[in-house]
Amino acid sequence: MLVYVSREKRPGHDHQKKAGAMNALTRASALLSNSPFILNLDCDHYINNSQALRAGICFMVGRDSDTVAFVQFPQRFEGVDPTDLYANHNRIFFDGTLRALDGMQGPIYVGTGCLFRRITVYGFDPPRINVGGPCFPRLAGLFAKTKFEKKTGWGKEIGWVYDTVTEDVVTGYRMHIKGWRSRYCSIYPHAFIGTAPINLTERLFQVLRWSTGSLEIFFSKNNPLFGSTYLHPLQRVAYINITTYPFTAIFLIFYTTVPALSFVTGHFIVQRPTTMFYVYLGIVLSTLLVIAVLEVKWAGVTVFEWFRNGQFWMTASCSAYLAAVCQVLTKVIFRRDISFKLTSKLPSGDEKKDPYADLYVVRWTPLMITPIIIIFVNIIGSAVAFAKVLDGEWTHWLKVAGGVFFNFWVLFHLYPFAKGILGKHGKTPVVVLVWWAFTFVITAVLYINIPHMHSSGGKHTTVHGHHGKKFVDAGYYNWP
């Protein structure tokens, strides 16, 4: 039996988007079939493996399975460009993080590709009602109406949770704090396949919505810090990480700009690195290396996929994460509601000529401002450092090389972003390199020539310090 349910959307009434649709479908399906399991798929996903449902149900009917609330399948996508420029496959998360959570209380609910046990949605077993044929459509339609939910627990204690951007994560979290578990199921051929936004702007909007929803959870009564004792301690740590990760944007902004600006100002955070500094630095780098090796091994990804994931993480942190932090703090302080744009996954219209045409379409958004500033700050900082070495102002060029390497490491991470905003397929790499080189050379030439133009027009001043050291043009730098 195949039944298409279209719910009522009354003007002036918040239909609660996906959460409202799932709750209406859950009520209507209770009359139509009342099956013990509910499969949730987004409209842009399809079943790719006919054995997927059987594989998921096995986790719910086997031994010690009475406490399994849902089975989460990893998301798989088609139509993504071969280089996965914006890390749409995100296998570090789907094949690494979710698999790791399976060893605790279970993976989080990610909004699609999930098989639920019906009683976990209701909180109790639904009644078995035998309804005659003529009453079927009438009652099912009544359950799909918006007024049915008035003065009920739907969207609060029952069903998918309302009034949150990430209703999927919160709904799964509510089940976990009640003591339910979840399971991770990855099969081949892939269970379900969907589409992903390959355009940079749409991808950033998608990440903005996710990160905004995560922060909303942190500043709400669903904060995992205050969850019930039924939540596994390590599962609590995982949820805290999931709800706070956008805050990394604040620190990353400093990491990607301060070292470059230090070359311009000449004032460095670390004047003379000590032995302990190098020890701590070695410990941090070694830890990051071990984590990277474990991620590659556990997720079963290549080093290129892992690095591509890191590249987009930096792009998202400098743009979408930062915007999410600002939006949520504005909501918390000024009590302003947050509206978000649904992610568009429709092609641009040139898919017959080029299936990845949408990848090279530039759609301006303010989210691009911060990464662009970071790119030019690092280019200018490197150019100034290069100019100071050539001009003889800095003689220890080996010490400068470490900072310049870090600047180019930042630029290398933001290369996919630069490629996305500069357009056409095949021409972009050359354009990006030309602009970077042009900015670098112009900055270096100006830095070298402008001081000499001023000094040639007037008297050169040299001031002696207390110990006889020379402070040339009132500027003396301890390092390098």
Question: What does this 3D model show about the protein?
Answer:
This protein has 480 residues and is of the alpha/beta class. 51% of the residues lie in helices and 6% in strands. It has 15 helices and 9 strands. The strands form 3 sheets. The protein has a 4-stranded mixed β-sheet, sandwiched between helices. The chain starts with 16 loop residues before the first helix and ends in an 8-residue tail after the last strand.
Q: Key terms for this structure?
A:
elongated, single chain, 15 helices, alpha/beta
What share of residues is helical? 40-55%
User: Largest sheet, described in full?
Assistant: 4 strands, mixed
| Contiguous helical run count | 15
* Arrangement of strands in the largest sheet: 1-5-3-6
Total DSSP E strands: 9
Order of helices and strands: HEEHEEHEHHHEEHHHHHHHHHEE
Rg to the nearest angstrom?
28 Å
- Helix and strand content put the structural class at alpha/beta
> Low-confidence runs (pLDDT<50, min 5 residues)?
125-129, 458-480
Beta fraction of the residues?
Answer: 5-15%
Instruction: Indicate the mean pLDDT.
Output: 81
Between the first and last Cα atoms, what is the distance in angstroms? 76 Å
Query: What's the shape?
Result: elongated
